[in-house]
């Protein structure tokens, strides 16, 4: 079960129930003067937003597994952005019909500011996910920065190799995946749960096996960069 998909789906559903139980949290409504709040159908608005956000949350989870099941993995792995951006836009814009005030200028500005914030967050996540991981190597430690980055001791490495093949990726358990980019934890055929920092489809793949049998698979957009990292790690292992 993909943890990220479940978390995001449940988060949207939770927000839906929250705005129904506490309508004062709805952007724009909580800053309205009391005389204008009287012209807002807050029961209808909070119910509509609850239902819309619940549908968005369920669509993320169901859509992910549906597209994954029929083999459209690229769409499945991008389902969060595909559903949230248009989904939230539709809910927020269409919810304005519950506001009977004649002057909606301020409300409209808040609405579009909220949509802009959501868009920035989603786009920012994808930009961060696609950003190349940087490697910092010292005599006894290797550090990968960026999304799902980590550190490891050189003494923890049992074996390192370059491979032209990658076992089939069965499932993403906790990570970022879009197109060829896969970062985080994935379940692989033969390897089981493994940590990936894959930036492209470019061969080869650098496979690091730790003393506890955990597999770490890394590659970059440049074949030379992957091979260079292999050389650095091999030298460190030979000298440990």
Automatic annotation (TrEMBL):
Bilayer-crossing regions: 6-27, 48-67, 79-98, 110-130
InterPro entries: UCP037672
UniProt keyword annotations, A-Z: Membrane, Transmembrane, Transmembrane helix
UniProt-listed Pfam families: DUF3784 (PF12650)
Keyword Metal-binding carried by entry: no
Protein name (database record): DUF3784 domain-containing protein
The organism of origin for this protein: Sunxiuqinia elliptica
């Amino acid at each position: 079960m993909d943890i990220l998909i479940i978390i995001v789906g449940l988060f949207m559903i939770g927000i839906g129930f929250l705005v129904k139980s506490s309508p004062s949290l709805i952007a724009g409504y909580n800053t309205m003067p009391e005389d204008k709040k009287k012209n807002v159908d807050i029961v209808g608005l909070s119910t509509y937003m609850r239902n819309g956000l619940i549908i968005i949350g369920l669509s993320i989870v169901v859509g992910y597994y549906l597209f994954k099941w029929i083999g459209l993995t690229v769409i499945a792995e991008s389902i969060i952005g595909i559903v949230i951006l248009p989904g939230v836009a539709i809910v927020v814009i269409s919810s304005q019909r519950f506001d009977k005030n004649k002057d909606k200028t301020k409300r409209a500005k808040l609405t579009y500011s909220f949509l802009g914030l959501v868009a920035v967050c989603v786009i920012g996540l994808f930009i961060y996910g696609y950003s190349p991981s940087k490697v910092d190597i010292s005599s006894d430690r290797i550090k990968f920065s960026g999304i799902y980055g980590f550190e490891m001791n050189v003494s923890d490495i049992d074996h390192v190799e370059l491979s032209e093949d990658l076992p089939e990726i069965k499932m993403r358990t906790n990570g970022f995946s879009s197109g060829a980019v896969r970062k985080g934890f994935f379940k692989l055929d033969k390897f089981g749960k493994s940590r990936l920092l894959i930036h492209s489809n470019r061969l080869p793949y650098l496979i690091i096996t730790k003393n506890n049998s955990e597999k770490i698979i890394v590659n970059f957009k440049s074949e030379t960069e992957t091979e260079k990292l292999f050389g650095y790690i091999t030298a460190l292992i030979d000298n440990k």
